[in-house]
Specification:
Elements (H helix, E strand, L loop, with lengths): L20 H9 L1 H9 L8 H18 L50 H29 L12 H25 L2 H8 L29 H7 L16 E2 L6 E2 L3 E3 L6 E6 L7 H19 L8 E6 L4 E5 L4 H20 L17 E2 L3 E2 L31 E4 L6 E4 L8 E12 L8 E5 L5 E6 L20 E11 L5 E5 L4 E4 L17 E17 L2 E11 L4 E7 L6 H4 L5 E12 L2 E5 L5 E6 L2
Parallel strand pairs: 4-5, 13-15, 19-21
Antiparallel strand pairs: 1-2, 3-4, 5-6, 7-8, 9-10, 11-12, 11-14, 12-13, 14-15, 14-16, 17-18, 17-20, 18-19, 20-21, 20-22
Length: about 600
């Protein structure tokens, strides 16, 4: 079972506070690096190669999902209809209609691959078709990112095709192994429709009376393709919806491929790289943590039988030694202690010193090397501009006053950790308009002082899995809007934004109003060091638009402040990274655990001190 969902009744940790292998590796590489990225939430530059790796893996998985009995090699990439998903974004167990594979007619047998070479031609043609579509999708996603860097034109499409083809070749070898060694028992069970709780995605449902592609006699190449298909996250599923979560909820991971057709369990990590850099050491640790996670999510009754890293650019399969039970017990104690240290209570910056581990050297294929690394960890770090081990320091602003040029008034800067973005507001439902299309209702609330607020429901499901809008809500009901993001829109009207951390709760009619809608503060003055810029561009019915932003760091926290290009003023183009700035009249925005600032026409950016 590669998916282990959290128990909502006993999960007191939540999706946003679990430990992961990437966090563990970041901490061990450098505690300060972990702090900047996981506590201050700084985002590293998004270069195309990060998206290319996802495109290659997605193309491989899309190909593995298909069947050569249903799809011609020359078919378009979207021949399968989307997988039916539930409200959590997972393949829907309750779906009663037809599934994507069931909507396709089986091809005449003359079109079925009859040997390894024919199957390889079909699979490599399919993966190239999917890769083209995946690269286009990733290009769009990259172009929308506000921290994109580099040039998409530098992506080597032929290299991407080579890596995707290598991944398919590695799987075809698995198919051949299945053809020559699958047991009669496993073959008959498959032919009779046996399915695991989370079957490998193949466009079919969770239960089958008999597999529609089953044959008679010895196993065929087509059957071996179907039987040997590994589990992977369905490409149509919502990101991070199919994690394996530790029974105590403090650790989670998501496997790339899990082979189990012969009764053994092998976890595969796909890497669209040569494997000749420091990260190859992290991949080994990650897989060993996944072995620990599998053992724990199977009540310590089932161990993995193999761990592999597929370095697609090197066309190399690296076998990783699996941990013993004693090592997994020790690993569990270490990881639980690390979770307590990093997530149970958030550490401050002094507890996360800039002490980087030495860089490791590897040859292609992840082979350890004695050659010295070309760079130190600090030399290649994205945060050297603010880190004491780089060109930065830890002495950032902590609020304080600033005299604006040409003004008698002093501006008081607000420490980032004192910014208040969420409030509990009690009022009566004044307007309630339900959507006929299943979208969020339109709601306004009012208080006795004739103050009104527009309640914008941006999420229908709370992070704890419950609805954000109660059933049976009616006009006139007294409600408490809990932890809503308090905003003023460009017209000065009050807005209460409902995201996955907020909700509406119905109250008894005798509940007292505890906070006036006119009391929360809506504008703030943010002062700090500029870490990086952000920018998004696009087109709408009104023409081209551009939103710009700055990541601001002070001694208490970090926040991204963004707004329309025209609202930033001339000093935005004058500042340099590392400068100290103050931005006045900033509104609050955000989503879930992420808080952002929003500038408006009345906001002003001032450079306080040069880097």
């Amino acid at each position: 079972m590669p998916v282990h969902l959290p128990n909502s009744e006993s999960d007191s940790i939540g999706n946003f506070n679990r430990l992961s292998a990437s966090q563990v590796n970041a901490w061990k590489a450098c505690p300060r690096l972990w702090f900047y990225e996981k506590v201050r939430r700084l985002v590293m530059p998004q270069i195309p190669i990060l998206f290319v790796g996802r495109a290659v893996e997605e193309a491989i998985c899309q190909t593995l999902k298909e069947s050569p009995c249903l799809v011609m090699a020359s078919a378009p990439s979207d021949v399968y209809a989307p997988t039916p998903l539930d409200d959590e974004g997972r393949p829907n167990r309750e779906h009663e209609g037809s599934w994507p594979a069931e909507q396709l007619l089986t091809l005449p047998e003359k079109h079925w691959p009859q040997n390894k070479d024919e199957l390889l031609v079909w699979a490599t043609t399919r993966v190239r078709t999917h890769l083209k579509a995946s690269l286009e999708n990733m290009k769009i996603e990259w172009s929308k990112h506000d921290r994109k860097a580099g040039r998409w034109e530098d992506v080597d499409v032929e290299r991407c095709q080579m890596m995707a083809t290598n991944g398919i070749l590695m799987h075809i070898n698995e198919v051949e192994n299945c053809l020559t060694s699958v047991s009669k028992k496993i073959l008959e069970e498959w032919r009779n429709g046996a399915r695991t709780q989370w079957p490998a995605p193949d466009g079919r449902g969770f239960q089958l009376d008999q597999h529609p592609l089953s044959q008679d006699g010895d196993v065929t190449w087509i059957e071996a393709w179907e039987i040997s298909r590994p589990w992977f996250v369905d490409p149509d599923a919502k990101p991070f919806s199919m994690n394996a979560v530790h029974p105590e909820h403090w650790f989670q991971g998501e496997y790339d491929l899990v082979y189990s057709w012969d009764g053994s369990i092998r976890i595969i990590d796909i890497k669209a790289s040569l494997g000749n850099n420091d990260r190859s050491g992290d991949y080994v640790k990650q897989l060993r943590m996944y072995a620990f996670l599998w053992w724990h999510t199977h009540e310590k009754q089932q161990e993995v039988d193999g761990l592999e890293i597929w370095y697609l650019a090197a066309n190399s399969q690296k076998m990783i030694e699996k941990p013993t039970i004693e090592e997994m017990d020790e690993m569990g104690s270490e990881l639980k202690e690390l979770w307590s240290q990093l997530r149970e209570v958030t550490p401050d910056i002094e507890q996360c010193p800039p002490k980087p581990a030495p860089m490791r050297s590897f040859e292609p294929g992840g082979v350890p090397s004695d050659k010295p690394a070309k760079q130190t960890r600090c030399e290649r770090c994205d945060w050297s501009i603010i880190c004491p081990n780089g060109t930065g320091h830890d002495e950032h602003p902590h609020g304080g006053t600033y005299q604006l040029p040409g003004s008698y008034a002093e501006i008081e800067g607000d420490p980032i950790d004192e910014l208040e973005d969420r409030h509990d507001i009690i009022g009566h439902v004044h307007t309630l308009i339900h959507s006929q299309s299943g979208r969020a209702p339109r709601i306004t609330i009012t208080q006795s002082n004739n103050a009104f607020a527009d309640v914008q429901v941006k999420a229908m499901i709370h992070s704890d899995g419950t609805p954000t809008v109660p059933e049976g809500l009616e006009k006139g009901d007294l409600v408490r809007v809990e932890k809503a993001i308090f905003q003023l829109n460009y017209k000065g009207a009050i807005v209460l934004k409902i995201d996955p951390f907020a909700r509406i709760v119905k109250l008894d009619s005798d509940e007292k109003v505890t906070m006036s809608l006119l009391k929360p503060r809506a504008r703030w003055n943010i002062m700090g060091t500029v870490v990086y810029r952000t920018e998004k561009r696009g087109e709408s019915a009104r023409g081209e638009w551009c939103r710009r932003g700055l990541m601001i760091l002070d001694n208490t926290g970090a926040i991204k402040v963004e707004g329309w290009q025209a609202d930033w003023g001339p000093q935005y183009d004058m500042l340099e990274l590392g400068d100290t700035v103050i931005i006045t009249n900033v509104g609050m925005n955000g989503w879930a655990a992420l808080t952002t600032g929003e500038i408006y026409r009345a906001s002003r950016l001032h450079i306080v001190a040069d880097n």
